[in-house]
Amino acid sequence: MRMQVVAAGLDPNPGVLHGSARGKHGFVLDLMEPMRPVVDRAVLQFVQAHTFHPADFTIRPDGVCRLNQELARCVVRMVTANLERSVRSRFAPAPLSRNQYNLQKHSLRQSRFLIAG
Questions:
Q1: How many angstroms separate the CA atoms of 101 and 95, rounded?
Q2: What is the pLDDT of residues 37-59, one digit of tens each?
Q3: pTM, whole model, 2 decimals?
């Protein structure tokens, strides 16, 4: 998404909600914020519907706990499907412009990256 923001001639750094900490691309994070409820809802639905097993997690040497790769991919697929449905329903009345489509596509890509960790 950062590349799309820069390609549109905008500065990705100064954010309103996320500030402008060096290298954090606050504006890009601000643009993704409206999709947060959709992602949160999908993740919560997954957590409620799934019975976890210790093998579903890995603990890194620095103590950080992560979903194993297989389960992370499953969550990403489910969240991406929810995002696509949400975006389609919001933009259904009017066709997407090329820029809107590209921004949507990169938002979905960014969400996959963030969820996969």
A1: 9
A2: 888 888 888 889 989 999 999 99
A3: 0.56
